[in-house]
Amino acid sequence: MTDYRKDTPQWLDEAIFYQIMPDRFAREGSVQNEPEQVKWEARPGSSGRGGSEFYGGNLKGICARLDHIKSLGCNAILLTPINRAPSYHRYDTTDFCQLDPLLGDWQDLERLVGAAHERGIKLVCDIALNHVSNEHPWFQAARNNPQSRERSWFKFAADGSYQCWWGYHTLPELELDNHDVQQKLFLGRDSVLSFWLDKGFDGIRLDCANDLTLDTCEKIVAAIRLRHPQAAIIGELCTYSVPWLRVLDATQSYFFTDSLKALKSGSITTRQCLDNMQIAYSSGAHRQFQMLSSHDIPRINSEWGRAPAFLRAARRLQFTMPGIPMLYYGEELAMRGRHDPENRATPDWRLLKKPAIAAELKELQKLTELRRNSPELIKGSWQPIFTDGYPDLFAFFRADHANPHRLTLVTWNNSRRKIQPTLTVPWGWLFSQLQIEEVFTGRRATTIAGLVTPTLDAHECAIWQVRDDSKRNYSFFKNRKG
Questions:
Q1: Sheet strands side by side (includes 122-127)
Q2: What residues in the chain have per-residue pLDDT under 70?
Q3: Which of 135, 302, 348, 350 is 20 to 30 Å apart from 66, CA to CA?
């Protein structure tokens, strides 16, 4: 059993995130942006600039959409970088501690933080500590003067070349073992991370955490915990993330998403997909983000929009599997877009009025409400169910053992036929004749002698919860242990 962090801020367990790329999300009021700013509805890349266009989204636009975000059931927002940078995505900073004026001013940020907190919404800021822009003053000093203090802040070779992220010469990597760099970024009282947390952010997402290394991430969390004990430190990983939960509060990886994609493509079976999930979650590694889309991967409606039953099942798993659900802006509008830059388009907010979108919103809101009101889905145990007779059944229990009536059963029939599998209920306090109810359809199934036999339509993903009202003037649950 991995020794996961015990001092993680509790609010993170109950978080449902909404990810925003500020330049592409919403704009409000006067827009201070570059002259080449494109029209809001223009497709990324259509201007001939390779998708690097500025659209003029700003902090005021985010503030104006907070009620919408709250209405979805989200209580946390992840903002991609807002520091000064030459690009719209701002992962290439030229000044870590300056708000990019194209997004607004400090008063705009203060209003956003205050308005979000008034609505019970946490704010997490994305920061790329691994690298900077080649226009950053630190790098300019280092490149222009081999004797400068900043020279040791980067990784130069004898011929003057330097190490850069994924080989992009515009993104020189910082020498993170250098003490001065560590002081600037996270150790010092006036470090980059402390600066933004002092502005009211509730957490930091570490871009490219795997490039930072486990040791550096551990130092970062230790330093921040001293001054900001309720700040969450989340790491983005392009690898199996379970070991990283020993040092980070949460991880954002693609294990869940990629397993479902492999299943849909036919490269793995339903049983193998469930095996994958058991590897990832059976050890208690529950603080992994569950996302179906992001700015780095294709939007889910482009992947599975033509397979609505599979998409619906994936969404229901997202909110019932262990982990922290995260929506990418525009998912609620069924936005499409494959790889960058298409997956970073601007939303058409008028679509919220369309009946088809309203129906999807209703399901999404049902799922966020379900998770919010189900302790077992937030911190409960996870028990996969393996059934040899039904190779296309993906099923599991979530249980809160301190409260026996808090049980959720998820059954996904990933086949083209109707099935009635008999499943073992592995807890002694689920007695015969106790009923469970499917939360979307209202139909019921009854436990008998430790077994339950739900009926599942083809491709259906059903979510069942305990109903203790089948016997008049009687409760199955007493003050007992077992």
A1: 250-252, 232-236, 203-206, 122-127, 76-79, 17-20, 324-328, 289-291
A2: 1-3, 31-36, 50, 429, 478-482
A3: 302
User: What is the pTM for the complete model shown?
Assistant: 0.96
pLDDT per position as a tens digit, 268-324: 999 999 999 998 887 777 899 999 999 999 999 999 999 999 999 999 999 999 999
State whether 364 and 442 are in the same domain: no
269 with 415, same domain: the answer is: no
Tell me which of 333, 353, 373 is where a domain ends: 373
- The span from the CA of 92 to the CA of 177, in Å, is 20
Q: Domain range spanning residue 100?
A: 10-130+176-373
* Residue type (1 letter), 342: E
Axis crossing angle, helix 355-372 with helix 308-320, rounded to the nearest 10: 20
* DSSP run (H or E) holding 124: strand 122-127
Are 408 and 274 within one domain? no
Q: Is residue 140 part of a domain?
A: no
pLDDT of residue 31: 63
pLDDT of the residue at 471: 78
At which of 309, 338, 373 does a domain end?
373
Q: Which pLDDT score is estimated for 3?
A: 59
User: pLDDT tens, 453-472?
Assistant: 999 999 999 999 998 787 77
Read out DSSP for 202-228?
SEEEETTHHHH-HHHHHHHHHHHHHH-
250 and 339 in one domain?
yes
Residue 39 DSSP label = P
Element (H, E) at 198: helix 192-198
What is the residue type of 310? F
Residues 274 and 416 reside in one and the same domain: no
Beta bridge pairs of residue 410: 396, 463
Q: What is the CA radius of gyration of the chain?
A: 24
